[in-house]
Queue: 2 jobs
Job 1
Amino acid sequence: MSLMDHLCRVCDERVSNGFRSGQKCEWFNRPGHFTGTFDAIIKITRNEGIRSLWSGLSPTMLSAVPATVFYFTLYDNLHCALREQFGNKSPFAPLLAGSLARASSVTIVSPLELIRTKMQSEKLSYFELTSAISRTIRSDGYSALYRGWTATMLRDIPFSAIYWTCYESFKQQFLYFLNVERINFTYSFLCGSLSGVIASIITLPFDVVKTHQQISLGQLTTKNCNENIPLAKKGVFKIFNELIETKGIKSLFTGLVPRVARVAPACAIMIGSYEHFKKFFTDQNKENALRIE
Protein backbone atom coordinates (compact mmCIF):
# COMPACT_ATOMS: atom_id res chain seq x y z
CA MET A 1 0.00 0.00 0.00
CA SER A 2 2.96 2.34 0.63
CA LEU A 3 4.25 1.62 -2.89
CA MET A 4 0.90 2.46 -4.51
CA ASP A 5 0.44 5.61 -2.46
CA HIS A 6 3.82 7.12 -3.28
CA LEU A 7 3.59 6.29 -6.98
CA CYS A 8 0.35 8.29 -7.07
CA ARG A 9 1.56 11.35 -5.19
CA VAL A 10 5.18 11.89 -6.28
CA CYS A 11 3.90 13.97 -9.24
CA ASP A 12 2.13 16.38 -6.85
CA GLU A 13 5.30 16.71 -4.76
CA ARG A 14 7.25 17.67 -7.88
CA VAL A 15 4.76 20.46 -8.63
CA SER A 16 4.68 21.61 -4.99
CA ASN A 17 8.49 21.79 -4.78
CA GLY A 18 8.60 23.52 -8.14
CA PHE A 19 6.43 26.31 -6.73
CA ARG A 20 8.92 27.04 -3.97
CA SER A 21 12.16 26.82 -5.91
CA GLY A 22 12.85 30.51 -6.21
CA GLN A 23 16.64 30.49 -6.21
CA LYS A 24 18.36 30.68 -9.57
CA CYS A 25 21.59 29.45 -11.05
CA GLU A 26 22.71 30.12 -14.63
CA TRP A 27 23.33 26.53 -15.65
CA PHE A 28 19.78 25.44 -14.89
CA ASN A 29 16.94 26.68 -17.13
CA ARG A 30 13.95 27.05 -14.83
CA PRO A 31 10.48 27.18 -16.39
CA GLY A 32 9.74 30.61 -14.92
CA HIS A 33 7.10 31.91 -12.53
CA PHE A 34 4.09 29.73 -11.77
CA THR A 35 0.64 31.32 -11.42
CA GLY A 36 -1.14 28.21 -10.20
CA THR A 37 -1.07 24.44 -9.87
CA PHE A 38 -2.13 23.66 -13.43
CA ASP A 39 0.16 26.37 -14.80
CA ALA A 40 3.04 24.69 -12.93
CA ILE A 41 2.15 21.27 -14.38
CA ILE A 42 1.98 22.67 -17.93
CA LYS A 43 5.26 24.64 -17.71
CA ILE A 44 7.22 21.85 -16.02
CA THR A 45 5.98 19.34 -18.61
CA ARG A 46 6.72 21.69 -21.52
CA ASN A 47 10.25 22.54 -20.35
CA GLU A 48 11.37 19.25 -18.83
CA GLY A 49 9.06 16.60 -20.26
CA ILE A 50 6.23 14.57 -18.74
CA ARG A 51 8.68 12.23 -16.98
CA SER A 52 10.01 15.13 -14.90
CA LEU A 53 6.73 15.13 -12.94
CA TRP A 54 7.96 11.86 -11.40
CA SER A 55 11.54 13.05 -10.79
CA GLY A 56 12.78 11.92 -7.41
CA LEU A 57 10.74 8.71 -7.59
CA SER A 58 13.70 6.40 -6.87
CA PRO A 59 14.77 7.99 -3.55
CA THR A 60 11.09 8.46 -2.70
CA MET A 61 10.45 4.73 -3.01
CA LEU A 62 13.71 3.87 -1.28
CA SER A 63 12.82 5.96 1.75
CA ALA A 64 9.02 5.80 1.76
CA VAL A 65 8.39 2.07 1.90
CA PRO A 66 10.59 1.17 4.92
CA ALA A 67 9.77 4.48 6.62
CA THR A 68 6.02 3.89 6.29
CA VAL A 69 6.27 0.32 7.57
CA PHE A 70 8.38 1.47 10.52
CA TYR A 71 6.12 4.47 11.23
CA PHE A 72 2.80 2.59 11.25
CA THR A 73 4.18 -0.35 13.22
CA LEU A 74 5.71 1.92 15.86
CA TYR A 75 2.57 4.08 16.06
CA ASP A 76 0.26 1.12 16.54
CA ASN A 77 2.38 -0.38 19.32
CA LEU A 78 2.83 2.96 21.09
CA HIS A 79 -0.87 3.76 20.74
CA CYS A 80 -1.89 0.44 22.30
CA ALA A 81 0.54 0.94 25.19
CA LEU A 82 -0.51 4.56 25.81
CA ARG A 83 -4.22 3.73 25.73
CA GLU A 84 -3.65 1.49 28.74
CA GLN A 85 -2.18 4.50 30.54
CA PHE A 86 -4.58 7.26 29.42
CA GLY A 87 -7.73 5.32 28.51
CA ASN A 88 -9.25 4.34 25.16
CA LYS A 89 -10.90 7.71 24.46
CA SER A 90 -8.08 9.97 25.63
CA PRO A 91 -6.68 12.31 22.91
CA PHE A 92 -3.23 12.12 24.50
CA ALA A 93 -2.61 8.53 23.37
CA PRO A 94 -2.75 9.20 19.59
CA LEU A 95 -1.09 12.59 20.02
CA LEU A 96 1.97 11.20 21.81
CA ALA A 97 2.15 7.98 19.78
CA GLY A 98 1.98 9.88 16.48
CA SER A 99 4.60 12.41 17.56
CA LEU A 100 7.12 9.81 18.80
CA ALA A 101 6.64 7.53 15.80
CA ARG A 102 7.08 10.40 13.33
CA ALA A 103 10.16 11.79 15.09
CA SER A 104 11.86 8.40 14.85
CA SER A 105 10.87 7.91 11.21
CA VAL A 106 11.98 11.39 10.10
CA THR A 107 15.41 11.01 11.69
CA ILE A 108 16.05 7.70 9.94
CA VAL A 109 15.09 8.80 6.40
CA SER A 110 16.11 12.50 6.53
CA PRO A 111 19.13 12.18 4.14
CA LEU A 112 17.02 10.39 1.51
CA GLU A 113 14.27 12.98 1.92
CA LEU A 114 16.80 15.73 1.24
CA ILE A 115 18.01 14.01 -1.94
CA ARG A 116 14.43 13.49 -3.12
CA THR A 117 13.57 17.15 -2.62
CA LYS A 118 16.70 18.24 -4.50
CA MET A 119 15.87 15.96 -7.44
CA GLN A 120 12.35 17.36 -7.61
CA SER A 121 13.43 21.00 -7.43
CA GLU A 122 16.00 20.80 -10.26
CA LYS A 123 16.55 18.69 -13.36
CA LEU A 124 19.79 16.97 -12.34
CA SER A 125 21.42 13.83 -13.65
CA TYR A 126 22.56 11.28 -11.06
CA PHE A 127 26.17 12.37 -11.73
CA GLU A 128 25.33 16.04 -11.09
CA LEU A 129 23.37 15.11 -7.97
CA THR A 130 26.26 13.00 -6.67
CA SER A 131 28.68 15.87 -7.34
CA ALA A 132 26.45 18.33 -5.48
CA ILE A 133 26.22 15.98 -2.50
CA SER A 134 30.00 15.39 -2.49
CA ARG A 135 30.77 19.13 -2.59
CA THR A 136 28.30 19.77 0.20
CA ILE A 137 29.81 17.05 2.42
CA ARG A 138 33.35 18.38 1.79
CA SER A 139 32.21 21.89 2.61
CA ASP A 140 29.85 21.32 5.54
CA GLY A 141 30.44 17.72 6.66
CA TYR A 142 27.97 14.85 6.87
CA SER A 143 25.65 16.93 9.03
CA ALA A 144 24.68 18.72 5.80
CA LEU A 145 22.71 15.61 4.83
CA TYR A 146 20.33 16.54 7.64
CA ARG A 147 19.73 20.01 6.23
CA GLY A 148 16.06 20.77 6.73
CA TRP A 149 15.79 18.23 9.58
CA THR A 150 14.65 20.85 12.10
CA ALA A 151 12.00 22.25 9.75
CA THR A 152 10.91 18.71 8.87
CA MET A 153 10.51 17.86 12.56
CA LEU A 154 8.62 21.10 13.17
CA ARG A 155 6.33 20.17 10.29
CA ASP A 156 5.94 16.41 10.74
CA ILE A 157 5.62 16.09 14.52
CA PRO A 158 2.73 18.59 14.73
CA PHE A 159 1.29 17.06 11.54
CA SER A 160 1.27 13.56 13.04
CA ALA A 161 -0.02 14.82 16.38
CA ILE A 162 -2.89 16.69 14.70
CA TYR A 163 -3.55 13.96 12.13
CA TRP A 164 -3.78 11.03 14.55
CA THR A 165 -5.73 13.00 17.15
CA CYS A 166 -8.28 14.04 14.50
CA TYR A 167 -8.37 10.58 12.93
CA GLU A 168 -8.97 8.73 16.20
CA SER A 169 -11.61 11.31 17.16
CA PHE A 170 -13.45 10.98 13.82
CA LYS A 171 -13.12 7.21 14.04
CA GLN A 172 -14.68 7.11 17.52
CA GLN A 173 -17.57 9.27 16.29
CA PHE A 174 -18.28 6.89 13.40
CA LEU A 175 -18.05 3.86 15.70
CA TYR A 176 -20.58 5.47 18.04
CA PHE A 177 -23.08 6.55 15.38
CA LEU A 178 -22.81 3.33 13.36
CA ASN A 179 -22.83 1.20 16.53
CA VAL A 180 -20.06 -1.09 15.26
CA GLU A 181 -16.76 -2.34 16.66
CA ARG A 182 -14.72 -1.46 13.55
CA ILE A 183 -15.24 0.96 10.70
CA ASN A 184 -14.86 -0.24 7.12
CA PHE A 185 -12.51 0.97 4.38
CA THR A 186 -14.85 3.76 3.21
CA TYR A 187 -15.12 5.41 6.63
CA SER A 188 -11.40 4.97 7.32
CA PHE A 189 -10.71 6.58 3.93
CA LEU A 190 -12.97 9.54 4.78
CA CYS A 191 -11.51 10.01 8.28
CA GLY A 192 -7.97 9.86 6.91
CA SER A 193 -8.70 12.37 4.16
CA LEU A 194 -10.32 14.93 6.47
CA SER A 195 -7.58 14.57 9.08
CA GLY A 196 -4.90 14.94 6.41
CA VAL A 197 -6.42 18.16 5.06
CA ILE A 198 -6.61 19.74 8.52
CA ALA A 199 -3.05 18.76 9.47
CA SER A 200 -1.52 19.74 6.10
CA ILE A 201 -2.99 23.27 6.14
CA ILE A 202 -1.83 23.97 9.70
CA THR A 203 1.73 22.70 9.13
CA LEU A 204 2.28 24.03 5.57
CA PRO A 205 4.56 26.97 6.59
CA PHE A 206 7.14 24.53 7.98
CA ASP A 207 6.98 22.49 4.77
CA VAL A 208 7.76 25.64 2.77
CA VAL A 209 10.78 26.42 4.98
CA LYS A 210 11.99 22.80 4.82
CA THR A 211 11.87 22.87 1.02
CA HIS A 212 13.81 26.15 0.85
CA GLN A 213 16.54 24.65 3.02
CA GLN A 214 16.82 21.39 1.11
CA ILE A 215 16.88 22.77 -2.45
CA SER A 216 20.01 24.77 -1.55
CA LEU A 217 22.02 21.50 -1.49
CA GLY A 218 25.14 22.14 -3.58
CA GLN A 219 23.46 25.07 -5.31
CA LEU A 220 26.09 27.72 -4.62
CA THR A 221 28.95 25.51 -5.75
CA THR A 222 27.57 24.27 -9.06
CA LYS A 223 28.67 25.20 -12.53
CA ASN A 224 28.82 28.95 -13.33
CA CYS A 225 28.10 29.91 -9.73
CA ASN A 226 30.58 31.66 -7.48
CA GLU A 227 32.60 28.84 -5.82
CA ASN A 228 33.96 31.21 -3.18
CA ILE A 229 30.54 31.72 -1.65
CA PRO A 230 29.90 29.20 1.15
CA LEU A 231 26.62 27.31 1.26
CA ALA A 232 23.92 29.23 3.04
CA LYS A 233 23.35 28.06 6.59
CA LYS A 234 20.08 29.66 7.55
CA GLY A 235 17.97 28.66 10.50
CA VAL A 236 14.28 27.89 10.33
CA PHE A 237 13.07 31.13 11.88
CA LYS A 238 15.51 33.24 9.85
CA ILE A 239 13.99 31.81 6.66
CA PHE A 240 10.53 32.46 8.11
CA ASN A 241 11.39 36.13 8.63
CA GLU A 242 13.02 36.51 5.21
CA LEU A 243 10.02 35.01 3.42
CA ILE A 244 7.60 37.27 5.29
CA GLU A 245 9.73 40.39 4.74
CA THR A 246 10.36 39.79 1.03
CA LYS A 247 7.19 38.04 -0.13
CA GLY A 248 4.63 38.55 2.59
CA ILE A 249 2.83 36.15 4.92
CA LYS A 250 1.14 34.41 1.97
CA SER A 251 4.54 33.03 0.89
CA LEU A 252 4.40 30.65 3.86
CA PHE A 253 1.40 29.01 2.23
CA THR A 254 2.96 28.60 -1.21
CA GLY A 255 1.88 25.34 -2.82
CA LEU A 256 -1.20 24.93 -0.60
CA VAL A 257 -3.36 23.42 -3.35
CA PRO A 258 -0.85 20.78 -4.55
CA ARG A 259 0.05 19.93 -0.93
CA VAL A 260 -3.57 19.36 0.07
CA ALA A 261 -4.20 17.52 -3.23
CA ARG A 262 -1.23 15.27 -2.40
CA VAL A 263 -1.69 14.78 1.33
CA ALA A 264 -5.46 14.19 1.47
CA PRO A 265 -5.56 11.18 -0.89
CA ALA A 266 -2.23 9.90 0.44
CA CYS A 267 -3.48 9.87 4.02
CA ALA A 268 -6.80 8.38 2.92
CA ILE A 269 -5.16 5.58 0.90
CA MET A 270 -2.64 4.78 3.61
CA ILE A 271 -4.99 4.62 6.59
CA GLY A 272 -7.84 3.02 4.61
CA SER A 273 -5.55 0.26 3.35
CA TYR A 274 -3.90 -0.12 6.75
CA GLU A 275 -7.18 -0.52 8.63
CA HIS A 276 -8.56 -2.88 5.98
CA PHE A 277 -5.58 -5.24 5.99
CA LYS A 278 -5.20 -4.98 9.75
CA LYS A 279 -8.78 -6.22 10.12
CA PHE A 280 -8.23 -8.90 7.46
CA PHE A 281 -5.13 -10.38 9.09
CA THR A 282 -6.61 -10.11 12.59
CA ASP A 283 -9.62 -12.14 11.44
CA GLN A 284 -7.31 -14.63 9.71
CA ASN A 285 -5.26 -15.09 12.88
CA LYS A 286 -8.42 -15.68 14.91
CA GLU A 287 -9.62 -18.30 12.44
CA ASN A 288 -6.24 -20.04 12.48
CA ALA A 289 -6.23 -20.03 16.28
CA LEU A 290 -9.69 -21.62 16.37
CA ARG A 291 -8.61 -24.33 13.93
CA ILE A 292 -5.60 -25.21 16.07
CA GLU A 293 -7.81 -25.50 19.17
Job 2
Amino acid sequence: MRRLLIAVIAALAVTLAVAGVATAADVVRFSRIDIGFGPILKANVTEACGFDVYVQGEGYLNVTLQYDSAGRLLRETYSTPGAFVTYTAPTMGTSYRFSWLPREEFIYPGGATIGGPAVYRSTGTIVNHPGEPAEAGVVVLSGTVVGFGPDGEPFVDFTDDQIADVFARGSLTRAGDPTESICNALTAK
Protein backbone atom coordinates (compact mmCIF):
# COMPACT_ATOMS: atom_id res chain seq x y z
CA MET A 1 0.00 0.00 0.00
CA ARG A 2 2.78 2.42 0.92
CA ARG A 3 4.60 1.78 -2.39
CA LEU A 4 1.34 2.40 -4.24
CA LEU A 5 0.91 5.70 -2.38
CA ILE A 6 4.47 6.67 -3.22
CA ALA A 7 3.96 5.71 -6.88
CA VAL A 8 0.83 7.88 -7.07
CA ILE A 9 2.58 10.81 -5.42
CA ALA A 10 5.67 10.35 -7.62
CA ALA A 11 3.43 10.41 -10.69
CA LEU A 12 1.80 13.61 -9.42
CA ALA A 13 5.17 15.16 -8.67
CA VAL A 14 6.63 14.23 -12.07
CA THR A 15 3.47 15.46 -13.82
CA LEU A 16 3.67 18.79 -12.04
CA ALA A 17 7.40 19.03 -12.76
CA VAL A 18 6.84 18.34 -16.46
CA ALA A 19 3.87 20.71 -16.55
CA GLY A 20 6.07 23.38 -14.99
CA VAL A 21 8.82 22.67 -17.57
CA ALA A 22 11.66 21.99 -15.17
CA THR A 23 15.00 23.07 -16.55
CA ALA A 24 18.16 20.99 -16.44
CA ALA A 25 19.86 20.55 -13.07
CA ASP A 26 16.68 21.60 -11.26
CA VAL A 27 15.48 20.59 -7.86
CA VAL A 28 11.69 20.41 -7.74
CA ARG A 29 9.97 20.34 -4.34
CA PHE A 30 6.37 19.67 -3.40
CA SER A 31 5.59 20.30 0.23
CA ARG A 32 2.73 19.44 2.52
CA ILE A 33 0.89 16.94 0.30
CA ASP A 34 -1.90 15.70 2.57
CA ILE A 35 -1.56 11.94 3.06
CA GLY A 36 -4.11 11.59 5.83
CA PHE A 37 -6.62 8.76 5.75
CA GLY A 38 -9.29 7.11 7.87
CA PRO A 39 -10.39 6.30 10.34
CA ILE A 40 -10.58 2.76 8.94
CA LEU A 41 -12.00 -0.16 10.91
CA LYS A 42 -9.34 -2.88 11.33
CA ALA A 43 -11.56 -5.98 11.08
CA ASN A 44 -8.92 -8.55 12.04
CA VAL A 45 -7.78 -6.54 15.07
CA THR A 46 -11.39 -5.77 16.06
CA GLU A 47 -12.18 -9.48 16.00
CA ALA A 48 -9.10 -10.37 18.07
CA CYS A 49 -9.62 -7.59 20.64
CA GLY A 50 -13.38 -7.95 21.01
CA PHE A 51 -13.99 -4.22 20.48
CA ASP A 52 -13.82 -1.87 17.49
CA VAL A 53 -10.29 -0.79 16.57
CA TYR A 54 -9.68 1.96 14.01
CA VAL A 55 -6.48 3.15 12.38
CA GLN A 56 -5.99 6.63 11.02
CA GLY A 57 -3.09 8.38 9.31
CA GLU A 58 -2.45 12.07 9.58
CA GLY A 59 0.27 14.23 8.19
CA TYR A 60 1.92 15.54 5.11
CA LEU A 61 4.40 14.28 2.56
CA ASN A 62 7.25 16.32 1.14
CA VAL A 63 8.66 15.26 -2.24
CA THR A 64 11.96 16.42 -3.74
CA LEU A 65 13.00 15.54 -7.30
CA GLN A 66 16.57 16.23 -8.43
CA TYR A 67 17.56 16.30 -12.12
CA ASP A 68 20.96 16.34 -13.83
CA SER A 69 22.00 18.86 -16.50
CA ALA A 70 20.52 16.61 -19.21
CA GLY A 71 17.14 16.64 -17.44
CA ARG A 72 17.37 13.03 -16.20
CA LEU A 73 15.96 12.24 -12.78
CA LEU A 74 18.79 11.56 -10.31
CA ARG A 75 16.93 11.28 -7.02
CA GLU A 76 13.41 11.13 -5.59
CA THR A 77 13.13 11.86 -1.86
CA TYR A 78 9.99 11.36 0.24
CA SER A 79 9.76 12.57 3.82
CA THR A 80 6.88 12.78 6.28
CA PRO A 81 7.97 15.03 9.14
CA GLY A 82 5.29 15.16 11.81
CA ALA A 83 3.14 12.39 10.29
CA PHE A 84 1.53 9.85 12.63
CA VAL A 85 -0.56 6.68 12.64
CA THR A 86 -3.17 6.49 15.40
CA TYR A 87 -4.89 3.34 16.67
CA THR A 88 -8.17 4.11 18.47
CA ALA A 89 -10.73 2.09 20.44
CA PRO A 90 -13.71 4.48 20.82
CA THR A 91 -15.69 2.20 23.16
CA MET A 92 -12.64 1.90 25.44
CA GLY A 93 -11.82 5.61 25.24
CA THR A 94 -8.18 4.82 24.44
CA SER A 95 -5.72 5.40 21.64
CA TYR A 96 -2.02 5.53 20.87
CA ARG A 97 0.05 6.79 17.97
CA PHE A 98 3.51 6.54 16.47
CA SER A 99 5.53 8.25 13.76
CA TRP A 100 4.40 7.28 10.30
CA LEU A 101 6.57 6.36 7.33
CA PRO A 102 10.32 6.58 7.25
CA ARG A 103 12.30 8.87 4.94
CA GLU A 104 12.54 7.11 1.59
CA GLU A 105 14.50 7.82 -1.53
CA PHE A 106 15.31 6.37 -4.92
CA ILE A 107 18.74 7.22 -6.33
CA TYR A 108 19.45 6.82 -10.04
CA PRO A 109 23.25 6.95 -10.62
CA GLY A 110 23.76 8.64 -13.99
CA GLY A 111 20.06 9.44 -14.25
CA ALA A 112 16.98 7.24 -14.55
CA THR A 113 17.23 5.27 -17.81
CA ILE A 114 15.73 1.92 -18.82
CA GLY A 115 18.14 -0.80 -17.72
CA GLY A 116 19.98 1.64 -15.47
CA PRO A 117 20.64 1.09 -11.77
CA ALA A 118 18.38 2.31 -8.99
CA VAL A 119 19.07 2.34 -5.27
CA TYR A 120 16.19 2.41 -2.78
CA ARG A 121 16.94 3.62 0.75
CA SER A 122 14.57 3.81 3.70
CA THR A 123 15.65 5.40 6.99
CA GLY A 124 13.63 5.73 10.21
CA THR A 125 10.68 4.20 12.03
CA ILE A 126 8.40 1.90 10.06
CA VAL A 127 6.04 0.81 12.84
CA ASN A 128 6.08 1.05 16.64
CA HIS A 129 3.33 -0.73 18.58
CA PRO A 130 3.51 -0.64 22.41
CA GLY A 131 4.95 -3.81 23.90
CA GLU A 132 6.77 -4.70 20.67
CA PRO A 133 10.23 -3.65 19.53
CA ALA A 134 10.05 -0.79 17.05
CA GLU A 135 10.64 -1.59 13.41
CA ALA A 136 13.25 1.04 12.65
CA GLY A 137 16.56 1.36 10.91
CA VAL A 138 18.10 1.63 7.47
CA VAL A 139 17.24 -0.54 4.47
CA VAL A 140 19.18 -0.26 1.20
CA LEU A 141 18.17 -2.25 -1.86
CA SER A 142 19.59 -2.18 -5.40
CA GLY A 143 17.28 -2.49 -8.37
CA THR A 144 16.92 -1.74 -12.06
CA VAL A 145 14.80 0.81 -13.92
CA VAL A 146 12.50 -1.27 -16.12
CA GLY A 147 10.28 1.41 -17.60
CA PHE A 148 8.50 4.69 -17.12
CA GLY A 149 4.90 5.57 -16.39
CA PRO A 150 2.84 7.87 -18.59
CA ASP A 151 3.96 10.88 -16.55
CA GLY A 152 7.66 9.97 -16.64
CA GLU A 153 7.93 8.29 -13.24
CA PRO A 154 10.51 5.46 -13.21
CA PHE A 155 9.38 1.90 -12.52
CA VAL A 156 11.99 -0.01 -10.52
CA ASP A 157 12.22 -3.80 -10.34
CA PHE A 158 13.97 -5.73 -7.57
CA THR A 159 14.96 -9.29 -8.49
CA ASP A 160 14.99 -12.10 -5.93
CA ASP A 161 18.81 -11.95 -5.91
CA GLN A 162 18.75 -8.20 -5.29
CA ILE A 163 16.23 -8.66 -2.48
CA ALA A 164 18.45 -11.39 -0.97
CA ASP A 165 21.36 -8.89 -1.01
CA VAL A 166 19.42 -6.19 0.86
CA PHE A 167 21.42 -4.18 3.37
CA ALA A 168 19.47 -3.73 6.58
CA ARG A 169 20.63 -2.32 9.88
CA GLY A 170 18.50 -1.71 12.94
CA SER A 171 15.50 -3.43 14.50
CA LEU A 172 13.89 -4.74 11.33
CA THR A 173 13.01 -8.34 12.11
CA ARG A 174 9.58 -8.31 13.71
CA ALA A 175 9.09 -11.75 15.22
CA GLY A 176 5.33 -11.90 15.34
CA ASP A 177 1.90 -10.47 14.79
CA PRO A 178 1.43 -7.19 16.72
CA THR A 179 -2.34 -7.75 17.22
CA GLU A 180 -2.00 -8.81 20.86
CA SER A 181 0.13 -5.78 21.71
CA ILE A 182 -2.42 -3.51 19.98
CA CYS A 183 -5.24 -5.00 22.07
CA ASN A 184 -3.17 -4.71 25.27
CA ALA A 185 -2.28 -1.08 24.58
CA LEU A 186 -5.91 -0.15 23.90
CA THR A 187 -7.24 -1.86 27.05
CA ALA A 188 -4.64 -0.29 29.37
CA LYS A 189 -5.97 2.60 31.42
